[in-house]
Write a structure and sequence with these properties.
This protein is α+β, with helices and mostly antiparallel strands and 194 residues long. The protein folds into three domains: 59 residues, Nucleic acid-binding proteins (OB fold (Dihydrolipoamide Acetyltransferase, E2P), Beta Barrel), CATH 2.40.50.140; 63 residues, DNA polymerase, domain 1, CATH 1.10.150.20; 45 residues, Ubiquitin-associated (UBA) domain (Helicase, Ruva Protein, domain 3, Orthogonal Bundle). It contains nine helices and five strands, in the order E-E-E-H-E-E-H-H-H-H-H-H-H-H. Helix 2 crosses helix 3, helix 7 packs across helix 8 and helix 7 crosses helix 9. It is globular. Pfam families: HHH_5, RuvA_C, RuvA_N. Its main location: cytoplasm. Belongs to the RuvA family. It is found in: Cytoplasm.
């Protein structure tokens, strides 16, 4: 029903963005990676999926059509709803998800909060023929030798002050962490301070 939303980014939260479109402030639930690409005050287009439940109408946003396609496929798995599907995409990009399913990598899927061995096995079984092969070769996430400065920039884009963002990155950083792990840990750290 709502394929995408285009407008000025009004606010960015830890798990959502509000985009001013046609006089409405559209609240869109999204992954940290999608949110990190947005900047308050900038014009943006977000690919969306509109879901109507008995108790709510929710709009989910994605960086591109591929991410939305994976979101839809994940919800066809028994016991996986929109929130869980979004959590999977917060941990794995579409090609990483395809790689995990194609190689029966249950451990990779269990890195998603709330996904146990049984759910991960079900995902592999039920998504095997729905996602296809990875579109690009998936490189193993290489640990960074020092905290990536782009993490602090991403946090500023999400609305945090630069000093607070840099302090959070410095607090959570441990040698061997990937950039994605640093971002997630910093978001959790900052979110716990509110």
């Amino acid at each position: 029903m709502i394929d995408h939303v285009r407008g000025q980014v009004s606010t960015i939260g830890l798990d959502h963005v509000v985009i001013d479109a046609g006089g409405f402030g559209m609240r869109i639930e999204a992954t940290p990676a999608t949110l990190a690409a947005l900047r308050t005050g900038d014009e943006a287009t977000v690919v969306t999926e509109f879901i109507v439940r008995q108790d709510a109408m929710l709009l989910y946003g994605f960086a591109d059509d591929d991410e939305r396609t994976c979101f839809r496929a994940l919800q066809t798995v028994t016991g996986v709803g929109a929130r869980t599907a979004l959590a999977v995409l917060a941990v794995h990009n579409p090609d990483e998800l395809r790689q995990a399913v194609a190689t029966d990598d249950i451990n990779a899927l269990q890195k998603v909060p709330g996904i146990g061995k049984k759910s991960a096995s079900r995902m592999v079984l039920e998504l095997k023929d729905k996602l296809g092969a990875p579109r690009q070769e998936v490189a193993a996430a290489s640990p960074v030798s020092q905290a990536d400065p782009s993490v602090a920039d991403a946090l500023v884009g999400l609305g945090w002050q630069l000093k607070a963002a840099e302090a959070a990155v410095e607090t959570v950083y441990q040698p061997g962490m990937t950039t994605a792990q640093i971002l997630r840990a910093a978001l959790q750290h900052l979110g716990g301070k509110k």
